[in-house]
Design a protein that fits this description.
By secondary structure, the chain is α/β, with parallel strands linked by helices. The chain contains 14 helices and 15 strands. A ten-stranded mixed β-sheet has the order 5-4-6-8-1-9-15-14-10-11, with helices on both faces. The protein has a three-stranded mixed β-sheet with strand order 2-3-7, covered by helices on one side. Strands 12-13 form a two-stranded antiparallel ribbon. β10, α11 and β11 form a beta-alpha-beta unit. α3 packs across α6, α7 crosses α13 and α10 packs across α11.
């Protein structure tokens, strides 16, 4: 496990900045998960009526001027909050680093929908189709690099930035991109993760409803129940999580707090279907990440599932996990979306963050909302109802997305 790598080649997490529907920093988020506190609620949304979602409640102007917010996006404001929080958590003063050697890599599921829908609504309902009222901020708000670009404007970062469209695998993939750029010595510090502003658009709710995959329940905290036999779909939520990533040599030199080392990762494609996953490719993704980490199934303490709460998606992921980890007595499995819904581009990064404190508190947080386990999802060592006390040294995090994009990330305690 990285025994052949120098400290200059090993990449570690030194800061975490996040906002979830049930917490605005890692301590709050972890406390909510351990106390089984849901962040889901009912709201009224244009053209759809009542839906369930998970919304953020962070101080949007803690690091952001109102003028910038008027010109920018919700996804940008989430990214700015999380990036600044990550730097603060890592005890990095951005004024004291070479900002040309800082990279910003943010994963998203989709971008531009919110601004476009709102402007079309105003065009038809308030401006009588007069296009002269169309916002001149539309283009910078909707270009794909917007969330990462807004972070660089806010922090005056002059190194590389880009936003990666990777469906619901995007949070992991943002982190992986940061790791790769650090290994290539293109940057000395990476701000990497994922964000989502998805509840701002009715279109994503309408699309999931049209697919018969929009989770619902009279009790919003039960609207999405991954692995439960009565699950009925996805709850669309917003969220953000950005990590400060550094080479181990840099972290040691400044005596930084280290959450863990990223020791394995893999990205692949199903090449099968627009929305239905392929268990064989998911299995391959996990196995390749383990190979890169030099690990076997028995070496993994936690597997955090993608587990969206869709009937078929959960079954197929369970099939892949059973194949890889079915013989392992050590590996325990959990999932997070029952607490916060599906935070889309932020999901992988947020769900990994929710498990990182296991390295310190030796607790595996449970799933949420499982009342009657689906027999096809009854995984060995599933932490279904109660938190589990267990020493944790390794975490494998799955994050999969539409068009068959898969990502797996492995973090090890140092």
């Amino acid at each position: 496990m990285n025994s052949n790598y120098s400290d200059d080649e090993r990449i570690v997490i030194t800061g975490v900045g996040l906002s979830a529907p049930n917490g605005n920093n890692l301590e709050e988020f972890r406390k909510s998960l351990l106390e089984r506190k849901s962040g889901l609620e009912h709201i009224e949304i244009r053209h759809m009526g009542k839906v369930t979602t998970g919304l953020l409640d962070f101080d949007e102007f803690k690091y952001l001027k109102k003028k910038h917010r008027r010109r920018g996006t919700r996804a940008g404001s989430i990214s700015i909050y999380c990036a600044n929080e990550a730097l603060g958590d890592a005890k990095i003063n951005i004024e004291e680093v070479d900002r040309s050697k800082v990279g910003v890599y943010i994963g998203i599921t989709e971008h531009g929908n919110v601004s476009t829908e709102n402007e079309i609504h105003d065009l038809y309902n308030e401006h009588n189709k007069n296009a002269s009222f169309w916002s001149h901020h539309h283009n910078p708000r909707t270009v794909a690099n917007s969330p990462a670009g807004e972070v660089t404007l806010n922090l005056k970062i002059t190194g590389p930035h880009y936003t990666m469209g990777a469906a619901c695998a995007a949070g992991n993939i943002g982190i992986i991109q940061g790791v790769q750029m650090l290994k290539l010595k293109e940057v000395d510090l990476a701000l990497a993760g994922g964000v989502s502003e998805s509840p701002g658009t009715f279109g994503i709710f309408a699309a999931f409803a049209a697919q018969g995959a929009l989770g619902s329940h009279d009790d919003p905290t039960k609207a999405t129940r991954p692995l439960d036999k009565d699950r009925n779909g996805v709850v669309v939520s917003e969220g953000g999580c950005i990590y400060a990533l550094e080479r181990l040599s840099t972290a040691k030199a400044r005596n930084a707090k280290i959450y863990g080392e990223i020791v394995g990762y893999h990205i692949n494609s199903d090449a099968t279907d627009f929305v239905l996953p392929n268990p064989a490719r998911q299995m391959e993704c996990m196995q390749k990440a383990m190979e890169k980490a030099g690990m076997t199934a028995e070496d993994l303490d936690i597997v955090n599932m993608h587990a969206t709460g869709t009937p078929q998606g959960d079954i197929q992921e369970c099939e892949a996990i059973s194949t890889v980890f079915g013989a392992s007595d050590n590996t325990h499995v959990n999932c997070t979306k029952g607490f916060i819904g599906h935070t889309m581009g932020a999901a992988g990064a947020l769900e990994l963050a929710g498990n990182l404190p296991s390295f310190v508190d030796s607790t595996v947080h449970s799933c949420h909302g499982i009342e009657n386990i689906d027999p096809k999802c009854n995984l060995k060592n599933l932490v279904a109802e109660d938190n589990l006390q267990k020493e944790v040294k390794t975490i494998l995090n799955n994050s999969f997305g539409m068009l068959g994009i898969n990502s797996t990330l492995i973090v090890k305690k140092l």
